[in-house]
Design a protein that fits this description.
- This protein is α/β, with parallel strands linked by helices.
- Helices cover 42% and strands 13% of the residues.
- It is built from 16 helices and 15 strands.
- A seven-stranded mixed sheet has the order 5-11-10-9-8-6-7, sandwiched between helices.
- Helix 10 links the parallel strand 9 and strand 10.
- The longest helix has 24 residues.
- The two termini are 33 Å apart.
- Bound molecules: pyridoxal-5'-phosphate.
- Pyridoxal-5'-phosphate (PLP) binds next to helix 6.
- The site of pyridoxal-5'-phosphate has 15 residues, from helix 6.
Length: 465
């Protein structure tokens, strides 16, 4: 785990210069992606907004991709790009990995779907149990399904309806967790009891009211909130959280925080769910559980589990699993444990995401973080680099981000967007928006890392020119 020193020598950046460079880089990008522009005109006739999911939208048009191999992707205009986006962190294995390809091919020939369990699902469960230190597992098809089912299981186990999440965290698109995300700074509410606000339309107020929030990195506030809610007869069934936040760039837990959360939730008989949809399999073989050494009652997985196929999983203690096994909760789904997904996950876990692969990811992440850090210092930019395992980012903020409120108050949105444009125009495909991080893949090389650092250097130098 690496965090750079706070930059004490940072100087303000000329906002006009940011605007000027943004205009120049946007124009260059539009020229470079004219084919995507044409495809958007066609796609927009039948796909709402020209995309399959709102997270793929982009002004003036989305980038339409054609293929990917190892650490690279290419778009419909033939731009070849080092992939640091990696499908929002789903492709830590790299694209078209031969071991996963072989497994999918073999499985295809033997039939791809039965809605009946196969041996691959057992092997994957055995491997996950050992990596994440939880004995019992069930499958889903996405991160949203994993967190939705996990919360239902926690509710059934405790007989309580209220739940608690970290303010600003994203746990998927079902109603109960589409609460208090992307909120403007002045709408966050009191520090000790931030507001519960729906994230978009169509979410029943009654559901929003069942979801309570607290800020990350504050276990005392969590305990006080649990006690306060208990007094009102609304003690939460669970706390669902990422052990390291992955949707404000990367926000690491401060020392002792996760241990304190574990103690608080145990003391008050609240189920602790680590949502490892992003961290799991990307920051260590056993995700945050292994990396931080704190054991929750449940873990949710998806994204990189399937090596590019839509697969998710829920890990449980024996006690938690009882309500699934005795039929109290229907944890169901036609495609759960789909043979193709399970074959891909088995190959990924046993042949690709090996201890050597994680050592490689750690080495590369150290290199990219150090490279970015050096540039931040050299050009006296307000920001720092932070990362863990395959994940990392440069956070453009004069203050260390420890939770959503600090992020929203300090992060430089315009600079983050300029960085995305610089990256694309120099052959780097990054996650869009101001809130994401890179995911390296096991197929990335030092050449890929150095390309990223070089693009960053160019932006830093231009900003100070
Ligand atoms: C931490 C976390 N949980 C859950 C989800 C939802 O996963 P999915 O998009 O597969 O439904 C995401 C998606 O980004 C996530 O980052």
């Amino acid at each position: 785990m690496t965090i750079s020193d706070d930059s004490t020598t940072a100087r303000p950046i000329d906002r006009d210069r940011i605007a000027e460079l943004t205009a120049r880089e946007s124009e260059a990008l539009n020229r470079r992606t004219a084919g995507s522009g044409e495809m958007f005109a066609r796609a927009n006739q039948t796909l709402s907004g020209g995309v399959a999911s709102a997270y793929q939208e982009r002004e003036p048009w989305p980038i339409y991709l054609e293929g990917g191999s190892g650490p690279k992707v290419w778009d419909v205009d033939g731009n070849e790009l080092w992939d640091f986006h990696n499908g929002f962190g789903s492709m830590v294995q790299g694209h078209a990995h031969p071991a996963i390809g072989r497994a999918i091919d073999d499985r295809y020939r033997k039939g791809t779907h039965f809605a009946a369990p196969t041996e691959d699902g057992i092997v994957v469960g055995e491997e996950l149990a050992q990596r994440f230190r939880l004995p019992k597992w069930r499958y889903t098809n996405s991160g949203s399904e994993s967190t939705m089912d996990a919360i239902r299981i926690a509710r059934a186990l405790t007989g309580r309806e209220d739940i608690m999440k970290i303010f600003g965290s994203y746990h998927g698109h079902h109603d109960g967790v589409m609460v208090s995300i992307g909120v403007e700074y002045d709408k966050i509410g009191p520090r000790e009891a931030p507001l519960s606000l729906p994230y978009g339309g169509g979410i029943p107020q009654g559901t929003v009211d069942l979801t309570h929030t607290i800020h990350f990195n504050d276990a005392e506030a969590m305990e006080a909130r649990i006690l306060g809610l208990e007094k009102e007869g609304r003690k939460p069934a669970c706390v669902i959280m990422e052990a390291a936040m992955m949707n404000l760039g990367v926000v690491l837990p401060i020392p002792g925080y996760l241990e304190a959360v574990r103690e608080v939730t145990r003391r008050h008989d609240v189920v602790l769910i680590f949502d490892e949809v992003k961290t799991g399999l990307c920051i260590a073989p056993g995700g945050a559980v292994e990396k931080f050494g704190v054991e929750p009652d449940m873990v949710t997985l998806a994204k990189s589990l399937g090596g590019g196929l839509p697969t998710g999983a829920i890990g449980m203690t024996e006690e938690v699993a009882r309500v699934v096994e005795d039929g109290t909760v229907y944890q169901v789904g036609t495609y759960n444990g789909n043979p193709l997904g399970m074959a891909a996950a088995r190959a990924s876990l046993l042949e690709v995401l090996t201890p050597d692969a994680y050592a490689h990811l750690d080495r590369l992440n150290d290199r990219i973080l150090a490279g970015c850090d050096e540039i931040l210092r050299e050009f006296e930019l307000p920001g720092y680099s932070v990362g863990v395992g395959s994940k990392g980012c440069v956070t453009f903020s004069p203050a260390r981000v420890t939770d959503y409120a600090v992020f929203k108050q300090n992060q430089d949105e315009e600079l983050s967007e300029l960085a995305w444009l610089y990256n694309f125009n120099r052959g780097i495909f990054m996650t869009p928006g101001r809130e994401e991080e890179w995911t390296l893949s096991v197929t990335h090389t030092e050449e890929a890392i150095d390309a990223y650092v070089e693009a960053f250097r160019e932006m830093a130098s231009d900003l100070r020119a």
